[in-house]
Amino acid sequence: MSQFKGKLLLLCGGVGGAKLALGFSRVLPPEQLLVAVNTADDFEHYGLSISPDLDTVMYTLAGLNDSERGWGMAGESWHCMESLARLGGETWFRLGDRDLATHLERTRRLRRGETLTQVTRSLCSHFGVRTPLLPMSDDPVATMLRTSQGELAFQDYFVREQCVPAISGYFFCGAESARPQPEMMRLLSEGGISAVVICPSNPFVSIEPILALPGVRDALRDSGAPVVAVSPIIAGRAVKGPSAKMMAELGYEVTPAAVAGLYRDLLDGFVIDKSDRAQVGSIEALGVATACERTLMRSLDDRMDLACRVMQFARSLID
Amino acid sequence: MSQFKGKLLLLCGGVGGAKLALGFSRVLPPEQLLVAVNTADDFEHYGLSISPDLDTVMYTLAGLNDSERGWGMAGESWHCMESLARLGGETWFRLGDRDLATHLERTRRLRRGETLTQVTRSLCSHFGVRTPLLPMSDDPVATMLRTSQGELAFQDYFVREQCVPAISGYFFCGAESARPQPEMMRLLSEGGISAVVICPSNPFVSIEPILALPGVRDALRDSGAPVVAVSPIIAGRAVKGPSAKMMAELGYEVTPAAVAGLYRDLLDGFVIDKSDRAQVGSIEALGVATACERTLMRSLDDRMDLACRVMQFARSLID
Q1: Do A89 and B104 count as a contact with CB atoms less than 8 A apart?
Q2: Which residues numbered 12-71 in A keep a CB inside 8 Å of some CB on B?
Q3: Is the CB of residue A146 less than 8 Å from the CB of residue A165?
Q4: How far apart are CA B35 and CA A132, in angstroms?
């Protein structure tokens, strides 16, 4: 399928990104793909180091994710959580019994000095995930949201408060001093990346944390690889999550063109849904080539099909 | 039953102590009993704060313990542990799904600044345990064993190595600077304790850590309350655990008299099993009054019965 010389680099958040990453993982061999995942929604809970986006992508690529619920593992049990409820513990962040093992093992390894990259590699290997997943950084970065209820850490906003508070701004605590994942940076600087795909993830809290790391925007621009994004907005709505609500609250139009505008300094191409073809003019006015595809991914076939089309589109931008 | 003016204070380790503590909890109202539990076998595992003896006593008093296995909760499930095994995690310390909730909630509360005393009170309250359980200290103390395999932390020796290495010594890391549980010390100094019962727990690693805390031996001696111990050794053997093996390796006879010798500076009375009545002379030669009872506790009745007899014996020593 691929005629790229180097690897395809995906920038990816949770659920939406994981769907496309799964598609790519089924049409590209592991050595031609690299998935860099947002870790700015990582947090510590009950003393455990939890990386929700990494886990979502990992479980999805392993075929272990619960696709109905949209998070966690399929066939999960909740005995620990039920007992926590009985003990008066915090139950807003649901921890399945099997999922807990991931957090425990991550915590154990981090505490003995492994990097998050090393831990992720080990977890993926045990889960049978051969596509390389990389945390965006081995250093802690935390998305903080300015909301109608004051400043909230991402999981407090996203899970505990169910995205109800209105957003007036956000920032990434620790981003200015965090080192972007070294392997990703090395490949970008050495011409090892043939194309970059920004997945249909939340632009503010999934993709921007990656781009906010020192040197990442420059490295992407300087790599010579085309950068293609897939719109997380279809017909004025986000498929899942608060992207649309956040865009509106932050004063953006809820359109693919507005998303393209957020990435305009980087973007060579933008993939939007066919239903949004009226947006092509506005996006191309930004100097960004635009492709219209079926971007709603319901089946594995949809995921693989979109991956192929995004790849073709990226390849068309190399010449 | 009780004609004591103050409370009965139990000093207690894990399984053996928990059995007698259960007996006492069924014959004395909560306000007449105080159980101080060894915390020198507490450890951190997977980032979680685990207090094995406190949990054993708590689960036992709550009627939730697995009495067959001797540790953990009855009817436990092991989904998290199975997943940890799959991830190549450490599985030598078995963490049941429901038991995990206890460790998670303890860790969460400790991290937000509660003392172990406060956390234990909260856990007990949610488990319906009305008898007050106190950790021996809110400060960390760690039993370390000098063994044929080098120095081992207690759980490494006890669980991971299954007590196989020979012991040549032991010490309690942190004991010299740890503050004994303040409520226990206050009651001892203010005459609020009518009698002290040293449970049939391991003298070296369950009871001695409590006695090693600064001021505890003096407080027990100065309290005016009779101190009575129940022998963990019956007919040359420990009912459970490594007490007998450790005594032999440390050069002691494996007899109730040798145990009494370990506590001789404190002890007013010693309860031994009827089968050990030949030891009475050696023990009374230490200046310690001796009572012979059925000390093997198979049933709840046995536990309650022994509690009553120990109490009667302690009362007989007040006059």
Answers
A1: yes
A2: 45-49
A3: no
A4: 53
